[in-house]
Amino acid sequence: GAQAQQVFRLFGYGFLMIILVLLPAFPSTSLVRERNRGTLALLLLNTPLSPWSIYAGKLLGCLAFTALLLTASLPAAAACHAHGGVSLRGQIVPLYAVLRLLLLEVVVLGLLVSSVARSVESSLRLTYGLLLVLCVLSPGPHQFLQGGSPGRLVTCAEWTRCLSPIPSVMEILHQSDAAGPGLKSARGTPLRFALLTLAGVLIGVVATIRRLSPVHLERSRPAGVITDDQNSRTRLLRRLLYLVDPQSRSGLIGPWTSAVMVKEFRNRQFGRAQWLARLMAVCAIASLGLTYAATSGTLDGGVETIGGIMVLLQFSLICLLVPSLGSVLVSGERESGGWALLQMTPLSTWQILCGKLLSAGWTLVLILLATIPGYLVMIWIQPELTQRITGVVLSVVLTVVGTLLYSAAVSSFFATTAPATVTSYALLILAWGGSLVVWLGREATFGRGTVEAVLRVNPLAAALSLMGVADFGQYRLMPYHWWFSGSCSACCLAAMWYQTWRLKQPQ
User: Fold this and answer.
1) 358-381: per-residue pLDDT in tens?
2) Confidence (pLDDT) at 469
3) Secondary structure class of 442 (helix, strand, coil)
4) How far is CA 220 from the centre of its chain?
5) What average pLDDT does this structure show over 466-485?
6) Which residues have a Cβ under 8 Å from the Cβ of 232 and sit 6 or more positions away?
7) Residue 385 in contact with residue 304, Cβ under 8 Å?
8) Beta strands, E only, 70-203
9) Environment class of 385 (CB within 10 Å of its CB; exposed 0-12, middle 13-18, buried 19+)
10) What is the pTM of this model?
11) Which 8-state DSSP code applies to residue 214?
């Protein structure tokens, strides 16, 4: 019975990961692709179909595909039930109910984002980003506030945690949170998840159908109001946000500055100096909040527990931002036609790659600096953790470098940004989440040696092991992970250089 329970957990988390990795690519590209090709206008204006019927067809088409995945999983669930230890009404039926609600939520969210986005790649990024916020970041406030005195803030954090399907699946599988020991919350999470999901689905359906109205097809952007005509509070806020004047002319490119990097900053959305200055301000505010959370949380939950939560939030930020920045470095140029202009310049392949990687690297450095003050406060509270936290920071830096090189290498093998973005997110989530699925089947399906060997390729598991988080600190993952990460980064850099050199040659 205990082994059947372990296999059932492996089965449940595996299908949860498959849904979150594979399913968003289909609904998030459905409506935006129709609108860009002009076929959505034909459906709305030249056919008797109503917006509701068009939306119902898109929704049922995506759900029919996903229903095949759940149907294929029935024999595995039946085998777990036949071995004993797994309840039909208490575990199997609730798990399938949560997975079906998650399927519906992902499809509705993807269609809503697809109706708002202007391009396929932006729709994919926004959909995966929102899912990451809902699934991984929404339980974050609860991890910091649990155990405190009851109040509105604690209640709000408990309900916010229920937006994610992961706590519901953990409760169904009789397992506590992976952020640390003793973090198991009150029961009733699946019911709250169902209520919140159904409410969100209803709002998403209504909003998407309204977006399918023919009025929204050619609606222009509002002209807006100039700053001098707004009230004093708005003018003061804009003066704080616009630290750099957006209308100021850019200076000349210096002799030791990469021209490609400057071109990326000036052409990329949120890449200009004023946006980088605002990003630095946001990072400063986030660092202050994280420092306060780390200080107050350490007094209640222990340094290792708070460190594990910080590592989870930090790697979630890496998984959200790095693939979206790296997957468009080369494929975006090829899709927009800018690669032909780069071929006519005297720039070498190495100069092009350095400029593009630096343009994404500087942005990531500014974002990652937001978590450094929290680690410094932990060192100040418990100085003997200095070596451990230094190893965690080094692992994070290597992870950022490796993930950026990997996503840039994937970008060099695609001519359009949409499949490059999907491939980057899918392979990254499968690599990180797949090894954690093997960890969930420890001591039942997989032995200790197999689990330790698989976790050595996972940077999240390596950072949690260095932090001493329960169930990860028992494995010896260092320095094997650093060697593996460095080798993979070198291979990705070589593959990207070779593919870019091939593309740089005259056609």
Assistant:
1) 888 877 777 677 667 767 777 777
2) 72
3) strand
4) 31
5) 80
6) none
7) no
8) none
9) buried
10) 0.71
11) G
Q: Cis omega before residue 190 (within 30°)?
A: no
Range among 79-93, 253-267, 365-379 rated most confident: 79-93
Contacts of residue 124, defined as CB under 8 A and 6 or more positions apart, other chains included, come to 24, 25, 28, 29, 418, 421, 422, 425
Query: Which uninterrupted H or E stretch holds 111?
Result: helix 93-116
DSSP 464: H
Structure tokens at 83: 């071995």
Per residue in 262-301, pLDDT (tens digit) is 777 766 655 555 555 666 666 666 656 655 655 555 445 5
Tokens of 7: 């296999």
**Partner residues linked to 446 by β-bridges:** 442
What is the DSSP secondary-structure string of 242-289?
-SS-TTSPP-PPPTTS-HHHHHHHHHSTT-SHHHHHHHHHHHHHHHHH
Tell me the C-alpha distance between 15 and 73, whole Å. 8
Q: Give me 59's structure tokens.
A: 């929704």
For residue 12, what are the contacts with CB-CB under 8 A and spacing of at least 6?
A: 95, 169, 172, 173
Count other Cβ atoms within 10 Å, centred on residue 126.
19
pLDDT of residue 283: 61
